[in-house]
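Researcher: First entry.
Model:
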Amino acid sequence: MEAEFVSRTKKKEQVEELQKLGAALIALPPVTLDALGLPAELLAAVRDAQRFTSHGALRRQVQFIGKVMRKIDPGPVRAAVAAIAGSSAAARAGQKRLEQWRERLIADDAALTAFAGEHAGADLQGMRTLIRNARKEIAEGKPPRAQRELFRVLRDFSHD
């Protein structure tokens, strides 16, 4: 039985893809890296790369990580990195929704009624005060202290 022919270009693309995956691992915080359950050799190589400041040394280490990853099945590692990227994308989407609510509340008085309908138990009087103060800050060009506080209140309701 003959082995399937893989062109040299295809091999290089695979190696580069593994190196990009390794670079994504290097960018992860240590706590997240520990939670992935990587093989010991790969984990050690990634931790070494995180310590390097020299561009050349980092580039060589990324190449080494790619070499180590050729020895293991990269599927689970790829899936874990994708899941982490997806969760951060979900967090960004949640942040954007909260920012939209804040903008709606500041721009329109009817938005507070809609917010109260969706979130029972909201401190409407406190939110009215924050909205009034945020509008005043915008009009006077002051730092957005009340706007930030309004965002915090919205974030607290989204976690409930």
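Researcher: Second entry.
Model:
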Amino acid sequence: MEIIDLSVPTEESPSEALSLKVVHQRHQETAPVLAKFFGCAENDLRNGLGYANDSVEMISHSGTHLDAPWHYAPQSEGKKARTIDQIPLAWCYGDGVVLDFRQKQKGSVITSEDLQKELDRIGYTLKPLDIVLIMTGADKLWGKAEYFDAGCGMCRESTLWLVDQGIRVMGIDAWGWDRPFWAIKEEFARTGDRQILWEAHLAGIEREYCHLEKLANLDLLPRAFNFKVACFPVKLTGGSAGWCRAVAIIGT
């Protein structure tokens, strides 16, 4: 069995457009706290050392994460949208398929026709609860500010098309599921069409689904399908998303 890491690091990075701060505590720093827990002196501890620890300040959408319907809007399919702790775990483990759109122009839209053409090219038919992974190549810019603007993205029509095939979890190796914000901003300035604003996310109002953002290493998968994906989110009560260590499992 081979496991391929599909996650970006959780770290302070120019690629994180929203604040993320990590503080690492050394063993020496926590010795007073550990000594207090045990009611002993610091020199009673082995080598006078406590434990290593870390303090992280970030939003639930930092790093690789799974968005819940609650992130998109208060309601989905006419009822209160589910938060991340309410998402069925069965959605988060299943057969994976990678669709390669690295050839598409930066900032362009992935349509349902694009999806079907790529499925035809690789010879795969979607089935309910498959986990569909969109490869744009944006992950190769991780660590740089350019990551935020990289890749192509999904729209309302293509997102709903996947849901209509029985897909509940889908993901992308870019900063967001929609097109980069600059591309949407430019089109809105040109057309004034409000329907394009965050349209792929807002498809979740009509049909319930989750998507992964900030995936990585999809190009390392040896084949486009015949592998499993595991992407269980952290159980953040009432959360709009949950951090996850998404992986592909080959040879199960």
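Model: Note on the second entry: The first strand starts at residue 2 and ends at 5.
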